[in-house]
Task: structure prediction
Amino acid sequence: MEIRLAAIIAALGGELHGDANMLVTGLAPLEVATPSDLSFLSNPKYQQQLAQSKAGCVVVGPQMLCAAVARGTCIVAEQPYLYFAKLTQLWKQGSPTSSGPLIHPSAVIDPLAQVDATARIGALCVVERGARVGAHTVLKSRVTVGENCVVGERCILHSGVVIGADGFGFAPNGEVWEKIEQLGAVQIGNDVEIGANTCVDRGALQDTVIEDGVKLDNLIQIGHNVHVGRNTAMAGCVGVAGSATIGANCTVGGGAIILGHLTVAANVNISAATVVTRSIQKPGHYTGIFPVDENASWERNAATLKQLHTLRDRIKAIEKEIGSR
Result:
């Protein structure tokens, strides 16, 4: 694709400093961009990369205007990262699209499933009985939508996603386990994107719910009867155990774990690798990570942590003794 800066400004706005007739032939990061590429800088701490970049044009925020103009052509936007996101959408719209059939010949769609006429179903996908796939939704290759599960409109499910596998439910019976049949389904709202090989389990009795605008990265596990609020985003390898409720507009960093039956309020940010062991009732940024260290130091600190309960009891005893004097 090729596009002139004038056309970008006309479509997306922004304040152009430089040649409006410049032809852009690619989008690239600062460090590898060429004179025909357009790049962006959203974090001022990477200002040195801006000065060294060979990009023909760079999208920057107002605070970086002087540095960007000194380097060359630039577009100033209030939110450069958001501007670049919209630019990638514009770029994709102008790129060649597949002219193949909306439903790949290798896909298997049950006669009792409902697939909107505008949905695109990729190679080796399976849409089971009673499932519904909404308008303009895209299922990439090898996606499975289980019985009676619903995927809303304008969703993207990447390769290997499984919607509606059985949740992990077993009751102990002596030395064996009795399966608890998973009788619910999965309800996915509109404008949801789910990354490769992510699994969303069906509910045991009621449905698992993923609300509108949710974004799930690759290799995420959503347990049965989980409810994820609108516009929440989770990074790769997050695990959410059964019956947890996560509010709207939350972010969950990669590798974080949320235990079952907990509630996370709206507008909560959970750092990567955090294990959430209690409900979070107030918005805010939460972290629960034991920092990495040299192994010998880590072992000493871990040994100390194991003694904290005993040390607390000793301190209480000393305080009590001092208080009685």
